[in-house]
Amino acid sequence: xxxxxxxxxxxxxxxxxxxxxxxxxxxxxxxxxxxxxxxxxxxxxxxxxxxxxxxxxxxxxxxxxxxxxxxxxxxxxxxxxxxxxxxxxxxxxxxxxxxxxxxxxxxxxxxxxxxxxxxxxxxxxxxxxxxxxxxxxxxxxxxxxxxxxxxxxxxxxxxxxxxxxxxxxxxxxxxxxxxxxxxxxxxxxxxxxxxxxxxxxxxxxxxxxxxxxxxxxxxxxxxxxxxxxxxxxxxxxxxxxxxxxxxxx
Length: 249
Prior knowledge:
Blueprint: H1 4-11, E1 57-58, E2 70-72, E3 79-81, E4 87-92, E5 100-106, E6 114-117, E7 126-131, E8 144-151, E9 162-170, H2 188-196, H3 200-213, H4 218-230, H5 234-247
Parallel strand pairs: 3-9
Antiparallel strand pairs: 1-2, 2-4, 4-7, 5-6, 5-8, 8-9
Helix pairs in contact: 2-3, 3-4, 4-5
């Protein structure tokens, strides 16, 4: 039987998150929204207090290259959301026949909040969204949740699983000392605003939904690629940029 304990044996010490060391977001140094044309200024301003090494990803060593890579679309630190039921985004590098599972863990307890297959299971390459609202999951404020996406290569063993994941914390703006509240309505402007004040998940999930609605808009994909590169997800960013041409046809 597949259990969360088995999953944690795969992740092992590679996660190395100092979960207890993080705190609310400090006021960011600059509150003005970045101009869409200003490529010299970072779009995303991370919290000043955060636990590093929070991203797990996403390749299985020792394979012949036929298996997919997966990546959690997150920074390598505990990232924030203002929403009770946010969305999580992740990347699949190539088509796969294997089932894909999602696990969400409250850092205070061992038993997962949720553990089960994604349905329908993604079969083609691309960036995918896990909507916690659709799963009936609500995040408590000031609690860190670890989440994982796993490609299940052997239903009888965790050893060959391909696992990626990150950490999310819900932090309401008045508690996080952010002068400008997050924008809860999704628009291009809200992507810039929320990224600038440290709400990674809200900025990225909005941007992904905008791209899903307008897949042939190259400006949206360039914006996402820029955000991805800022947090070190260069391979996913390059895939996004290559996708611009194919999306036009």
